[in-house]
Amino acid sequence: MRVARELALSAPVERVWAALWDVPRMVACVPGCVEAREIEPRRRYHARMSQKVGPIALSVPLDIRVTEGPPGRLAVEARGRDGLLAAEVQMSVRLAVQAVEAGSRLAVEAEGRMLGKLGALGASVIQRRAEELVDEFAARLRGAIEG
Q1: Whole-angstrom Cα distance, residue 86 to residue 145?
Q2: Is the pTM of this model over 0.85?
């Protein structure tokens, strides 16, 4: 699955970056993220995601690594496995922040692979759920930054 969105924000680039590096704020913005902690500052994190995709509910511990940092872009890779369902999740997320006249623009690109029982649901179900999650993340992030 692949999802790309652009989000116009009425906040300066510096405030957007501050929010993106604020772990508790990101936990509140990422749908299904029930916990996250910094292992190595701005390089490695651990998180737990709980999601329902179609009829399947899963809880996945994720190892998250920052592969590219600011200025301008942030890229992370995340991998995890739900042992109960034997479902494996692999994701990469790229965020690009650009200053614009009215504040800033955030571009979000997410790609992922779901293996095991979760992958058996079919690409269209997973794609639709991924789009919903990215849209919800964007709305929550806007509220956290502008609110």
Answers
A1: 37
A2: yes
| C-alpha angle 8-50-76 in degrees, rounded to nearest 5 | 50
Residue type, 55: P
What whole-number distance in Å separates Cα of residue 116 and Cα of residue 82? Answer: 10
Yes or no: say if 67 and 38 are a contact pair by the CB < 8 Å rule.
Answer: no
What topology does CATH give the domain 2-146? Answer: Alpha-D-Glucose-1,6-Bisphosphate; Chain A, domain 4 (3.30.530)
pLDDT digits (tens, 9 = 90+) for 90-143: 999 999 999 999 999 999 999 998 887 666 666 777 788 889 999 999 999 999
Q: Identify which has the larger pLDDT, 117 or 20.
A: 20
State the residue for tokens 């910094």.
Answer: 38
* CA pair distance 97, 104, nearest whole angstrom: 7
